[in-house]
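Q: I'm building a small set of examples for a reading group on sequence design. Run inverse folding on the following structure and report the sequence directly after it, with nothing in between.
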């Protein structure tokens, strides 16, 4: 297969990245750079259907549907790439890629040069525009309201703990990204816990010498926070060096409110206001060495250091059942100084020889968490000290993993196999000391906890993919063996688990033509309890409100049947399935002590069904709209207090973006999100909404980019839950994240163009370590 890449002016595109992607899962079969005159050649390509993907810095990503038959030499001719700059004015370039399209069953967002995403600050704001995706006030991402997707960068996993993931994603601006792929039905080749995958494809910069970018975002609400990032890249003929530095400084705040009341008993209300001060650094260094034409070795080292201060103020007010007489009122101040140090190294190798290709990823990581707290509770009526605690937390996690994949191409078919082994240890030791009546601090055995957890995961899979006429198909089987030992040294309680899980999957795709396709998929996935969920320790929301881990939790399995249809930019998908042994929490209230506990358990099952659609509307040359609509059904079987609840839940979401191209190269966008009443068998969730607006412009020949965004303009985003059975307990919860804020972003491209962000290859175990 031969071809040539040119610009819209007919100039050859030297050193563009050309990738041959397999049907139906878009995995890379082979890739190379064009030569100095824009030419490329792929030899020994087997019969079959492929996607040809063309990437170049500053140009739109181009996809071509390629079919190879009877081993006949194929010449693609000249492929024209459209520069991003030509899309920034008021002239619309014909033939440009749509904002969102479906490729092999995956939703693909074409970010580079796309006006729909120009005014977004970072990846998190872009993901709010994806059909079925929701991003909450703390940056957590969910698909269809129930699945937490794994984040991949350039096809490799980057799962992180919540704080580090948000830090990393907030550093990726739209001008660093080529495309984003959302795979809602990952095949058997991916980890069992990857129920969905978001793959962020970063722009490739092959210019020799130095390139990079520097950016700073300042957000202002009740408090101020700054997010600063520096990215540098140096290219030689064979080696690419990358370096990234990130720094977050400032504050955020949130509020928590709760009501707990049994009939004819006292009423207890809780108010907590938490301010968090950030002083967080992230570092990343990497080198990719192309030592042969089809082989590459990549080494990455990374570190994340967080030095934070948390000040939390809690008030508890108890009145009689009529709400007239005060029973007690307390005021609690909690000053904490959490510190986190994460260090990791990754070695990634991939190669190809003839019809075979392989890749190996090895990771070792060490996560250290330290926290010291002082908690003082006063009687608010007479200002007398009631309790004084001090805590000291030491948490250490070590992760070791290796994964290998092998692919053999045989005509129109591919055979893929691989395996993974991961060994994780975590030790969580927290000590509570309480001030006694003699003004001496003594060890509090009822709250202190020493917990050791070891987990071994061995996995293997085999997958077969093929093509017949307009049909593409794949079938795979994955097996994962898990052994875990949870040892509560404080209570002398040891819990051992050993289980083997078989996870089949299958997909069939029918391509009507280049614009239309249908896809039917069946997937099996598993969710293991994370380390915190298993730890039998009290995690306090307030002095009388906490949740406890459960060492007896079992892993859940999910079976999903999905059907999708796309016609150009219009996409619609639906799925139906059941999760066995889903993990959930339920409340238990003690009216004598006023303690409210949230306990973990496995439910028998949970049924679900979703339908989601996305479509753009082009009003005229300067006004574009995009709509995402979703409908969701849930029904979980929940035994609680000798009654089994199985209440069907129906809800819907509406997400709309309006983008206006204004004179003088300004871009204005408006985004609106609404979620209706929802919940589960025990709680009702109140509606949620937010309204965002942003304005963007480039300067200095597009090297300087300025943006101003206002998120949650009307301060409407809140998470509120109400317990259904008030005869058992009147329990209401409310979380407010302070999402209303103004953000000003300034970024500047160094060198000839923006560099390629270093790849962060984190694995599933790191994500579960600090969830």
């Amino acid at each position: 297969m031969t071809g040539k890449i040119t610009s819209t002016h007919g100039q050859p595109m030297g050193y563009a990245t050309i990738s041959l992607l397999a049907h139906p899962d878009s995995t890379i079969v082979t890739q190379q750079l064009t030569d100095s005159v824009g030419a490329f050649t792929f030899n020994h390509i087997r019969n079959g259907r492929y996607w040809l993907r063309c990437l170049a810095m500053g140009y739109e990503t181009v996809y071509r549907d390629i079919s190879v038959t009877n081993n006949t030499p194929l010449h693609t001719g000249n492929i024209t790439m459209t520069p991003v700059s030509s899309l920034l004015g008021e002239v619309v370039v014909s033939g440009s890629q749509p904002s969102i399209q479906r490729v092999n069953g995956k939703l693909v967002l074409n970010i580079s040069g796309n006006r729909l995403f120009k005014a977004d600050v970072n990846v998190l704001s872009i993901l709010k525009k994806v059909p079925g995706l929701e991003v909450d006030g703390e940056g957590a991402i969910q698909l269809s309201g129930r699945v937490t997707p794994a984040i991949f960068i350039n096809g490799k996993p980057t799962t992180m703990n919540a704080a580090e993931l948000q830090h990393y994603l907030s550093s990726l601006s739209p001008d660093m990204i080529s495309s984003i792929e959302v795979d809602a039905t990952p095949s058997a080749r991916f980890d069992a816990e990857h129920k969905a995958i978001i793959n962020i494809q970063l722009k490739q910069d092959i210019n020799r010498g130095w390139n990079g970018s520097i950016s700073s975002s300042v957000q202002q609400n009740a408090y101020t926070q700054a997010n600063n990032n520096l990215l540098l890249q140096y290219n030689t003929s064979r080696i690419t060096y990358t370096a990234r530095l990130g720094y977050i400084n400032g504050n955020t705040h949130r509020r928590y409110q709760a009501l707990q009341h049994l009939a004819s008993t006292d009423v207890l209300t809780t108010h907590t206001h938490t301010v968090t001060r950030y002083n967080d650094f992230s570092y990343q260094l990497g080198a990719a060495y192309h030592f042969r034409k089809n082989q590459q070795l990549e080494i990455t080292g990374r570190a994340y250091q967080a030095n934070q201060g948390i000040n939390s103020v809690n008030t508890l007010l108890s009145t009689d059942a009529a709400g007239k007489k005060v029973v007690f009122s307390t005021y609690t101040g909690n000053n904490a100084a959490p510190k986190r140090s994460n260090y990791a190294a990754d070695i990634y190798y991939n190669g190809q020889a003839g019809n075979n290709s392989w890749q190996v990823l090895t990771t070792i990581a060490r996560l250290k968490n330290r926290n010291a707290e002082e908690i003082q509770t006063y009687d608010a009526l007479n200002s007398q000290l009631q309790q004084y605690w001090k805590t000291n937390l030491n948490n250490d996690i070590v992760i070791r993993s290796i994964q290998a994949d092998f692919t053999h191409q045989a005509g129109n078919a591919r055979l893929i196999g691989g395996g993974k082994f991961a060994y994780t240890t975590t030790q969580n030791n927290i000590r509570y000391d309480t001030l006694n009546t003699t003004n001496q601090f003594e060890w509090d055995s009822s709250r202190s906890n020493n917990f050791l957890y070891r987990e071994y995961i061995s996995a293997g899979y085999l997958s077969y993919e093929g093509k017949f006429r307009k049909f593409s198909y794949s079938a795979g089987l994955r097996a994962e063996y898990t052994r875990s030992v949870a040892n509560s040294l404080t209570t002398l309680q040891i819990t051992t688990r050993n289980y083997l899980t078989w996870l089949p999957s299958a997909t069939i795709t029918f391509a009507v033509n280049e614009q239309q396709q249908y896809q039917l998929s069946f997937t099996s996935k598993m969710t293991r309890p994370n380390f915190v969920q298993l730890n039998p320790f009290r995690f306090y929301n307030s002095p009388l409100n906490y949740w406890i881990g459960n060492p007896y939790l079992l892993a859940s399995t999910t079976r999903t049947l999905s059907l999708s249809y796309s016609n150009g930019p219009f996409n619609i998908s639906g799925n139906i399935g059941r999760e066995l042994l889903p993990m959930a929490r339920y409340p238990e209230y003690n009216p004598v002590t006023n303690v409210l506990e949230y306990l973990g358990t496995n439910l028998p099952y949970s049924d679900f069904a979703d339908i989601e659609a996305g479509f753009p509307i082009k009003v005229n040359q300067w006004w574009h709209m995009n709509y995402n609509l979703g409908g969701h059904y849930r029904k979980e079987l929940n035994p609680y207090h000798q009654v089994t609840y199985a209440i069907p839940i129906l809800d819907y979401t509406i997400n709309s973006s309006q983008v206006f191209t204004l004179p003088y190269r300004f871009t204005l966008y408006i985004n609106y999100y609404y979620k209706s009443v929802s919940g589960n068998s025990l709680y009702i969730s109140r509606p949620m909404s937010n309204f965002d607006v942003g304005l963007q412009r480039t300067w200095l020949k597009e090297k300087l980019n300025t943006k101003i965004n206002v998120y949650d303009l009307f301060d409407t985003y809140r998470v509120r839950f109400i317990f259904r059975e008030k005869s058992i307990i009147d329990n209401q919860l409310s979380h407010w994240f302070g999402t209303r804020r103004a953000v000003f972003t300034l970024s500047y491209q160094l060198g000839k163009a923006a560099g390629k962000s270093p790849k962060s290859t984190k694995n599933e175990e790191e994500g579960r370590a600090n969830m």
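The longest strand covers residues 267-292.
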